[in-house]
């Protein structure tokens, strides 16, 4: 499946940290009650999703690049 939007540096930080924790995106979203499409928005940068951005940064212990 080809992505329509490139992954942002913040998106790569999310993906990298999820890999370190051995979690896939769906499982992470299920555990922390985050809509899958919002995490996808954060990864591709299509929406700021401030509420979820803060939660993801806190849970994954990452900073915005």
UniProtKB/TrEMBL annotation:
This is XRE family transcriptional regulator.
């Amino acid at each position: 499946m080809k992505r329509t939007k490139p992954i942002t540096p913040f998106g790569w930080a999310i993906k990298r940290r999820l890999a370190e924790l051995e979690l896939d995106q769906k499982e992470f979203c299920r555990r922390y009650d985050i809509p899958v499409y919002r995490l996808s928005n954060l990864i591709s940068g299509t929406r700021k999703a401030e509420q979820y951005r803060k939660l993801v940064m806190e849970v994954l212990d990452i900073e915005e690049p």
